[in-house]
Amino acid sequence: MEMEKLVSLCKRRGFLFQSSEIYGGLNGFWDYGPLGVELKRNIKGAWWRDMVTGHDDLSISPGAPETYDMTGLDCTIIMHPNVWKASGHYDLFHDMMVDCRQTNKRYRFDQVRGRWAEAKGQKVFVTTVAENEQQEIERQAQKLFKIRAKNADEISWDGAITTLDQIDDLSQVLGPDAGELGTLTEPREFNLMFKTIVGAMGTEEDAAFLRPETAQGIFVNFKNVVDSTRVKIPFGIAQVGKSFRNEITPRNFTFRSREFEQMEIEFFCHPDSSQDWYKYWRDRRMKWYTDLGLSGDRLILREHDADELSHYSTGTADIEYAFPFLPAGEYGELEGIAHRGDFDLRSHMEGKLDEKSNPLEVQLGADGKPKWRGSGKDLTYRNPETNERFTPHVIEPSAGADRATLAFLCEAYTEDEQPDEKGKPQTRTVMRFHPRIAPIKAAVFPLVKKDGMPEIAKDIYRELKQHCNVFYDEKGAIGRRYRRQDEAGTPFCITVDGETLQDSTVTIRDRDSLDQWRVKADDCVAELMKRLS
Ligand code: ATP
């Protein structure tokens, strides 16, 4: 599937719009349209139901070492600035970036890639950040060397496309949008947190940050949840909400946005069983995506190698999807499942006091002591039965709601050939969403706008509306109405026709198989509910 087709369908049918579009848009920000908002709400709803409210805490779930509780939270986006100092985000949450002195553009260091080109006695490392790398690099090189496309073989190439960190001398580099050599600066750190000011004074002292992840709200409330509910370890706390990262180069549609939504679980358990819980959550989360329709050959579970792991983690796996905008064989992260040990709770208790067991780069204050301390509060847990006290270990399945939505959109997009009313083959675009996440569950049509058909159809519509999101349409040829619903991903269409007037039956049409069958109008709701569940 070509990404352009999906992007155009998303705009045409109201799944996704560029934020502030009438003002030219704002890079890295996206709005969900009337169909998109339903799709994303259904995905978040399915996640919350499957992970939290629908979770059976009285039985041992398949693959789980024991029974466990699940509960939820909804925390603020702006939190005490010390949260981010203790968590490490203040010091360490950055990307390396390079600036172009000629164009004033800024790039993520690891995204600038290029290749050595030689012509007219000059050797240059020509770079790009575009997805069609080779083409762009060739175009840039031709421009620089003033060589026409038809004489492109006057340029000789050395080695494969590599990242900028392989190049020692930046003076030989042509920046992605530059017209001359050596305009890129040395890489510098760039903190990804959005800064804001709380209160009327507006001084640096009042600086706060928009959360770059929802997880920290869960850690700082760990004690509140234990004290206010009857949960016992092992248990998980879930949160869905907005997060913000000032990404240097937002791209690939909503994949890398500056404002996005996360669906995160922090699962607290005893250190001895933490490896089993890690495996449980990794497999459980993978199954969630496949159950909702992401196909096996485009979805992978990738365990991190030892050298990729954070120093505190004894296991991390990513669930990745082969998005169509990525080069063949490459996958993009949908979710990370990490064994985080006791790192987070300990950071919020103690801060970075003990360099040996907590070997972050510690910033030292004037007194030579580490600058950032935790809350000083006791965030350990006491087992009420054995009285054992310990700092729980944490397994964190951290998913992006927007990336999941994008993956479901990509997976759903299909084209097939179907005859139109005159029997001529036509390309049909179908969004094959799983019924649970489809924005509209059913559409109701009267075949014609007369003979009492609209009245019967409206009654069915009103009744169905009490159960799910349905759509009523009486305008245009029936074939065109079906096509519109196929593009919206509506699994079922119900049509009231001439036969309905005689025997009170209606036609139900299946979006994927195109099968049509008749049921009694009175049984319509029950039939749909059965098929949608
Ligand atoms: P990446 O390496 O792609 O930047 P990450 O490893 O920094 O992602 P995490 O910090 O693990 O991501 O965040 C958890 C999840 O949040 C990701 O798996 C992703 O689904 C989502 N997410 C993170 N950053 C973004 C973003 N800029 N836009 C959309 N979703 C995001």
Mean pLDDT: 92
**CATH topology type of the largest domain:** BirA Bifunctional Protein, domain 2
Structural class: alpha+beta
Provide the gyration radius in Å.
28 Å
CATH 2nd-level architecture of the largest domain: 2-Layer Sandwich
User: Spans of 5+ residues with little confidence (pLDDT < 50)?
Assistant: 353-362
Q: What is the H level of CATH, i.e. the homologous superfamily of the largest domain?
A: Bira Bifunctional Protein, Domain 2
What is the makeup of the main sheet? Answer: 7 strands, mixed
Count helical runs.
Answer: 14
Number of domains: 3
Explain this structure to me?
By secondary structure, the chain is α+β, with helices and mostly antiparallel strands. The protein folds into three domains: 3-93 and 193-408, BirA Bifunctional Protein, domain 2, CATH 3.30.930; 96-190, no CATH class; 440-532, Anticodon-binding domain (Rossmann fold, 3-Layer(aba) Sandwich), CATH 3.40.50. The chain is 27% helix and 27% strand. It is built from 14 helices and 27 strands. Strands 3-13-14-20-17-16-15 form a seven-stranded mixed sheet. A hairpin with a 6-residue loop joins strand 4 (94-99) and strand 5. Helix 2 (34-53) packs across helix 10 (401-412). The longest helix has 20 residues, at 34-53. Adenosine-5'-triphosphate binds at residues 213, 245, 247, 256-257, 260, 262, 333-336, 398-400, 402-403. Residues 213, 245, 247, 256-257, 260, 262, 333-336, 398-400, 402-403 line the site of adenosine-5'-triphosphate.
